[in-house]
Design brief:
mainly alpha, TerB-like, TerB family tellurite resistance protein
Length: about 140
């Protein structure tokens, strides 16, 4: 997997990409959700840059042989820890978790792979309490 600077838009986008591909496919509803939430803008990217990062994440997963794990987390535990470790900013962590939850729920079913990514984010980032609070409406 490529490495990106800590808290960079690219590192953040890769967490989003993991959630999108965690069920083994990229659904139209997920792409529409990315656009509706303006995820690219929230991460400081152009729309085409976010989509390019989604593609490069899939390429990395294919080359490592991990993307074929439909129904399970698309990366092994160590890789997942490394990727989560690239996000250090507490505000960015919370933003990413909220975006990823919405992406996982877009089809009214949270797949095992999606759940694995979400649980890892909560665990690695220490967001247990945040999951119990309703999102603020800023």
């Amino acid at each position: 997997m490529r490495s990106y600077p800590v808290n960079s838009p690219q590192a953040a986008a890769r967490i989003v990409a993991l959630t999108v591909v965690a069920d083994g496919e990229i659904a139209d509803a997920e792409i529409e959700c990315l656009d509706r939430l303006a995820v690219h803008e929230r991460l400081g990217l152009a729309r085409h840059e976010l989509h390019a990062l989604l593609d490069s994440c899939c390429e990395d997963l294919h080359s490592s042989g991990q993307l074929q794990w439909a129904g399970a987390c698309p990366v092994d535990e160590r890789t997942l820890a490394d990727l989560m470790g690239e996000i250090q900013d507490p505000g960015l962590r919370l933003t990413l978790l909220r975006v990823c939850v919405e992406l996982a729920e877009v089809d009214a079913h949270v797949d095992e792979g999606e759940s694995s990514v979400l649980v890892a984010a909560v665990e690695y980032w220490g967001l247990h309490r945040e999951m119990l609070r309703p999102p603020s409406r800023n």
